[in-house]
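Quick illustration, no need to memorize.
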Amino acid sequence: MLSCRLLAGFILSFAALFSGCSAPRPVAAEGLPKLPEETSVPRSREANDAARFLAGLPGTAGSPYAALEETDAWKEHRRQLDAMWLEAEGELLPGLRKFQTEELNQPAVRTPTVFYPFSGPDALTATLYFPHNPLYVMVALEPAGTLPTPRQIAKKELPGYLSSIRDTMASELGRSFFITRQMDHQFRGQVTDGLLTPILQLLARGGHTVLGFRYVRLDESGQVIDRVAGYKAPTRYGNKGVEIEFQSDADASVHHLFYFSVNLSNDRLRENTPFQQYLSRLTGTVSMLKATSYMTHQGGFSMIRDALVSNSYAVLQDDSGVPFKKFGQDRWKLQLYGDYNRPYGSFKWMEQDDLREAYKTTNPKALPMHVGYGYRRITSNLLLATRLN
């Protein structure tokens, strides 16, 4: 039976999640909550070794993949991935870095937790936009997945396996986002059993060393706890995830990344009280939304949309994120980037007349890269909303 103190805490957390009355403030660096003890990740090189091998990067001394790196299949894998990343370095990645330096470098943006719902495995964009933030929380539908061992990889038909691994990166590097239907085909057992592997690859190629990882889940009070890789949830709300600790090769700063497999639709989130409680503690975040299939424009995703508006200090998004009308100018400082006409392709019916008008009547800044739907086919847009009070 719940104690009165715990019950009261739950009620307050639930109210904070869905109330728009409070206005989270940016957290000063010295006031950041410390990562709780249960987020301690066991240090091990196995994840970094696998990340480098699958990302087409030479292993470090003592790598268990050294023999596999001598195969023609891996050498071709490396050659093709080098070419893909070189192409991305033509515009996308330098543009993201330039945008970060010029628009996302304020102290108040560099310190909060980065919250990235509907993320897929996109650790690359999160860490390029926000390279200094200590903690990232990514949430999507796809399973968390497991880390393959050198023995498991060695048993595979290596040319075909590595070709499939390359295919999982093609959309992110070629269009700036992961395509939902491709993720459904690739990350549910066909290529990998979840998102741990692509997240690790993107961290490695993005200039990070993986220090360790662990399998996690949320307990009934929404606290992060360890789980065994084969844990079977007693309900459909397993809230399974992974935690990754990694270090920036540029400045040796250490960061943590959580990925949780959670259905964010109202039907599921309403019953998923552990994740509600976890989410209620994510206040004052820098939240980001990109290529979301316009989920938060739909009534069936109003709970996560309202939580984002209520709990975020800042929101960086394209037009598929929170509808523009939700950012009242009495509470938000708004800066537009790029240009907006209407959504691309099958999403063209999700037009926002007020956003189009804002682009005409304000002074949007130029974007140094293309991002999101209609990549290089239409103009790209971003909105940075920063809370005023």
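The CA atoms of residues 41 and 234 lie 25 Å apart.
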